[in-house]
Amino acid sequence: MKKISIVIPAYNEEEVIRTSYFKTKEVLEKCEQYDYEIIYINDGSKDKTLEILQKITQENEKVKVISFSRNFGHQEAVTAGLQFVTGEVVAIMDVDLQDPPELLPEMISLWEEGNEVIYGKRKLRKGESKFKLLTAKMFYTTLNALSDIEIPRDTGDFRVVDRKVVDVINQLPEHNKFLRGLFSWVGFKQKAFDYERQERQAGKTKYPFTKMWNLASNGIISFSTKPLKFVGGLGILTILMSIIILMYSLLSYLFQLNNLTPGWTSIMVTITLFSGVQLLSIWMMSEYIARIYDETRKRPQYIIDKKINIE
Description:
By secondary structure, the protein is of the alpha/beta class. Helices cover 50% and strands 19% of the residues. The protein is built from ten helices and eight strands. The protein has helices at 17-30, 49-59, 74-83, 104-112, 130-146, 163-171, 179-185, 209-223, 226-254, 264-297; strands at 2-10, 34-42, 63-68, 89-92, 117-125, 155-162, 190-197, 304-308. Helix 1 links the parallel strand 1 (2-10) and strand 2 (34-42). Helix 5 runs parallel beside helix 8 and helix 9 (226-254) packs antiparallel against helix 10. The protein is elongated and about 90 Å long. The chain starts with a strand and ends with a strand.
C-alpha cells in the first residue's frame, strides 16, 4: 500500500490546529487505497501548540511531531518536514486551512496520472487585503523578470510532489531556501492545480510584512544575479549623466548663458546622484555577501528539540 506524507508547519496555532488535524485526518482516511502520515513541525511556538500536538500523537500514532528549539521560520520548518517523510507522495500545506485538505484527493489523482509536482495556483484569495494582493502581484512580476527560470504566479507552498522530487530538494545544501522557486528549478513534470484559497479559520497570520519582505528578497536573490548587473548598468548611466552635466556647464561658461548659479547645480547633482548610486550598489551587493556569509558559517538551518513518533 502506498503512503501519503503530509508536511504541516505550525507556529502559535493553538486556536486552529486541532480542527485542522481532524479535517486532514478525515480526508486521508477516505483515501482507503493509501496509508498516511502527518508530520507537524512545531516552529518554536510559545502557546499551547506543542501541548495539543502531543495529545494528538497519543491518539494517533500516524501523527508525527518535530519540535524546534526556537522559531526558525516557515521555510526551515517545511525543509525539516521533508527530511523525515517516508511516503511515496508528499503534500505540503499550511495548518490554517486556507489550503483546503479536501483538495488532496484530486491532487493525488493528478500524481497518479504521472505528474511529479502538482502546485496549487490561487485563482481566488479570500480574506486577503488589496495591499497584500497588490504586493504579491508585484513580487511575482519582479521575480520572473529577474529570474532565469519561470516561477508560477499566484502560488505558495501548497503542493503535492513525488518522493523522488523531495529527495532532490533534500540534497540541495543552501540555507536561505525559497522552496516554491526550488521546486520550479528542479524541473520534472509539473502541473498547475487551480483552487480558491480560503480565509484563515482562526488566529492571526504569522506572515507580517517584514517576513513577507524577507521571503521576497530570498526569492529574488536566490534565483537571479541580475540586480548586480543592474548596478553595473546604473553606474555606467550615472557616469554618462555626469559627463553631460560637465559638458553643459562648460558650454554655459563658454557662451556666457548665465542661466546657472556657477558651480552649485553641477556639484549638488553630481554629489547626490553618486551618493544614491553608491548606497544602492552597496545595499545590493551586501545582500549577496550576506547570503555567502550564511553559507560559509555552515550553521544548521534549524535545531530540533524533540521528535515524537519519529524513529
